[in-house]
Amino acid sequence: MTHSAAHSTTPLRIMLGLSSVLAGVALILAPLSPQAIAVIVGIGLSLTGVALLLRAGRDRHEHRDALSASGIGLGFVVLALGTIIALWPSLGAPGLAALIGAALIAHGLFSALRALRAAASDRASEIIAAAATVIFGALTFAWPVLTLTVFRYALGAWFVFFGLRALVGLLPRKGSLAAPAAAGTRHPVLRRWTRTIGSVAALVVAVAFAWGSGSILGGVPLPEPDGFYTAPSQVPDEPGRLLRSEPLTTGVPAGAEAWKILYTTTHPDGSPAVSSGTVIAPKQRGKTPLPLLTISHGTTGVVPKCAPSLSATPFADGAGAALAEMVTEHGWAGVISDYIGLGTEGPHPYLIGEAEARNVLDASRAVQQLGHIRTTTDTVVWGHSQGGQGALWTGQIAEDYAPELTVKGIAAFAPASDLFGLAEIEKTEVGGKTVSAYIASTWDRIYPDLELEQHLTPGSAGPVEQIADHCFDGRDALAALLRGSQVPNQIFPDSVLDGPFGDRLKAQEPKGPFPAPVMVAQGLADPLVKPQMQHDWVEGRCRAGEQIDYRTFPGLSHNTLVAADSPLTPQIVQWTLDRWNGKAATPNCPAG
């Protein structure tokens, strides 16, 4: 390249160098989402592609060989790849993670092949290092967001280095320093052992990380439903009919007795279905009917093995301590529906309010036929989280769907009252992605017209399937959340939320009228059901004429709100007893 040609490209090379440095600094220092990482990486790769083209053009002018021609081809490839990633970050984020993994695996396999031709003294360490590289490459597919996070810092440092080198290359050269003799040649044995130890250490870390990933992301083995949960060949069309029962001894509080039940109910479309559930009552009971608690349980998962009646702690969900007190100290009976699809054949109507409420009310009907105990047809309804939404819907439809039951009170703890608001606010958060995955896997079967599976964001389909197979219980819940954390994008694109799917979400909001006093409890440190969202829902119901007893608890989160030591626990008990004894409700609708 002539002096004048080199001089004409100097401003462009300065701009590229500075831009590369700035992109690197942004990757290292700025708080970035996976999509923002993809945009900056795409811009950085585009700039790198332009720089490669400039350098290849200079080399071709000077040498005109095949190597410089291939450099031009590489520059165009890098430029095109960077442009695609920058312009389509929703596609670029998962694609970039997959590209990193594929590149690592390819590099590891290539290194292994090259190691076979290496000197015998170096072969072992190179093969070990290649194996570690392949394992790390495979792990990127399980941890795409973590991969992008690590990659951003490494690539950011490289962008800074690349840009500074380009800028330094523009400085006038006054001479060069002779490179000293390679120090590595002085101690070949030490160098060989250092490389071997480093390779072994890398392999140990890779294998440990792979084992840990499999252990955590795989969840824990959970019992599958046995023959008790299988529907009989002849199922009555009438909802609320008890089909069978058997004693339950696992996880039953001292002083209580429990049973599993199988009963008839309805699918979301109104067709006959079968659901399972549990009943708990005091061991010591007289001849008078027991006051009845009807409980709508919170999220436990969306597949049959996630039924609360299969859990080692079937009565611990939500306000478990308050339930135990109501049964063993105040002589109440409680009935908890598993819901369709948990224990029994699905699909589970996850967060579909009216369908859940039918399952809950039919469980209260079925318990009337259980020969072991007698209960009242008057009932108080409880629910936490998903169950909070279910409890509100249970009260809302009770008079029409099950007029033989009388609801005397409805208590909802951190209810998912505004499902659309929940989906909108938390679409990029770990909890929101996990809940969205549960919705996607169940609603796609219940509402096939929405075609949700075909409209998930790029990179979401696989995680949705994996999350759906995990129960939201113990280590399995951790696995579900971790998989949710590795979804680079929100599960549902905004275009889907703004369409018919969004309308269906809005239709799940319980609006009343409610036939009995309502108490809503909310932790003000809840990261899942946002306090402001709950406040807005309560305020809206109050404006509509509903009388809500709204109680907030500073410092309590989604789960600590209903923990045994929560200040809400004794309040739940007293509020329930007050409803049973006919005491006046204490609404306190918030102002403004």
UniProtKB/TrEMBL annotation:
Transmembrane segments: 12-30, 36-54, 66-88, 94-115, 127-146, 152-172, 193-212
GO molecular function, one term: triacylglycerol lipase activity
InterPro entries per UniProt: AB_hydrolase_fold, DUF308_memb, Lipase_secreted
Annotated signal peptide: none
GO biological process terms on file: lipid catabolic process
UniProt keyword annotations, A-Z: Hydrolase, Membrane, Transmembrane, Transmembrane helix
Top-level taxon: Bacteria
Coiled coil (UniProt feature): none
Protein name in UniProt: Alpha/beta hydrolase
Organism: Leucobacter ruminantium
